[in-house]
Amino acid sequence: MRRPLRVMKFGGTSVGDAACVAKVVEIIRTASRESDVVVVVSAMSGVTNKLIDAGTKSEAGDGASVELFFKGLRERHDVVVNTLIHSAAQRSRLSRKMAVLLQEGERLCQGTTLLRELTPRARDSISSLGERLSAPLVAAALTECGVASQAIEATELIQTDSCHGAADPCMDVTRERCDAHLRPLLRKGLVPVVTGFIGATAGGVLTTLGRGGSDYSATILGAALDADEILIWTDVDGMLTADPRLVPGACTIAEISYREAAELAHFGAKVLHPKTLRALIHCGIPLWIRNTFAPEQSGTKITPAGPPNGRGIRGLTCISDVAMITVGGPGIVGVPDVLGRTFATTAAVRANVLLISQSSSQNDICLVVSSSVAKSTVEALRREFAHDLAHEKVEHVTLDPTVAIVTVVGRNMRGSGIVGRTFGALGRSGVNVIAIALGSSECNLSFVVSREDMKDALVTTHREFQLGCTEYTGANVTVSCDSDTPNADNA
Ligand code: ASP
Ligand code: MG
Questions:
Q1: pLDDT tens digit string along 16-26?
Q2: How would CATH label the architecture of 5-234?
Q3: What's 309-491's CATH class?
């Protein structure tokens, strides 16, 4: 009988220290009894952030801090090696391998210091080091416990475009490579341990898939191998109905559709990288989110269609590091192509527009962008409309940095009275809604509130739709901090 194939990804906190790696080994060992397993690992928690920081410091010429950082990095990995690997031969093989990697990292930083320039390509190479260190470590820990295993770098498996820092895979080549490199290992009964987060261009240049991208690595490999299941092991019980730090009583969602999960991920639920589900659209493989530290919990199952009779609303998310820009005044009615020019400008400064609303009178256009690009976007818009502002055709381009977006995610929302109930409840709670966007996809309703109202808006909406579960025990509802990016299970 064919053994099922599972791709299991472990995030930064899951491989954060020796005790955690030991838990991971146990989970893989159990799974490998009944299925073929491909493991994907993140860097140890905190490492990627520090590597990026080392790159920036190298560019600034701060060689001393960088040297200190590499010393700490070596020590942190050594502790795990010394705790988990008892065979002297294995230990020295692993130490040699790590020394080579660390030296490569240090050289890249030294080169950056010489040039005083951190290119996107160098930044990717430096920040990939965490995964390249953790994969051999986990593979050795597995072998030590009798689970034959081999580390493999995703640069040999995942071919990507050359968009450094946010690369996307070329699936045809990736599939061929997985067949050529991973299947033979599986046939030999080995557990391959693949570096998350990275790939390489057709020319072999290392790329990264974006912060938190190891989730995406897992679905890319799962899709390429036609896996039966993908499991993302993290430090929370699954996807939650809301951020439990803001909404007491938020609970784990048992089952959710790809679409809804992608909406939640896009609008701030950090448990999954927003692109994760993209790789699965054409193959329909179920994806689980499970807790490494509470493996008895069943987690969240993400399936193409979600549960058969799921309620209309599945969960709430929010993004608070955003700012609202308004281009407006009655005069803009007569200005040609205001919308086209506005969005050509945001595109030119690479500002990702998270929400748009425009009154049909065209009196003003309001858009929400992330705080990091708000200032540059406003400046670019003021330049674009300088002439119209001078002639008062456009009265203002303003910035409000004190807002937040709250998003209600569900499905088949049309006709279910969700809009009325949401705003009715918010009105009764005294929350002032500043702008609204309701996608015609009927799976999300987003609105802008002032940041100080965000918590109330979430609590009120959560209560209105009774999203808290009655059997909620209060256990294990922390938000993922398996990572460097705040509240995300990255490393
Ligand atoms: N280590 C990478 C990061 O922190 C990728 C990941 O953990 O998913 O962004
Ligand atoms: Mg993550």
A1: 999 999 999 99
A2: 3-Layer(aba) Sandwich (3.40)
A3: alpha beta
